Amino acid sequence: MPWAKHLTRLGHTVFITALHSNYGELKEKVQILDSITIEYVAQMHVLKRGSHKGYFNLFRLFWIVLKSTIKLSYRATAQPARIIIVGKPHPMNGIAGILASIIRKTFLIVDVDDDEQSSGNFKYAWQRSFIGWFQNILLSRADLVITNTFYMRQKLIGNKVIPNKIYYLPNGVEQTIITYSDDELRKLREKLRLRFTYTVIFVGSLSLTNHPVLLLIDSFSDLLNINNDVNLLIVGGGESIDQIIDYVKNRKIDDKVFFVGKVDSSDVNKYYQIANLSVDPVFDDEVAKARCPLKLFESWANNIPFVTGDVGDRKILAGNPPAIALCKAGDAMSLAVEINKLLSSPTLIEELTKNGKDHVKNYHWDKLISDFHNAVLLGKEPV
Question: Is pLDDT of 95 > 80?
Answer without folding.
Answer: yes
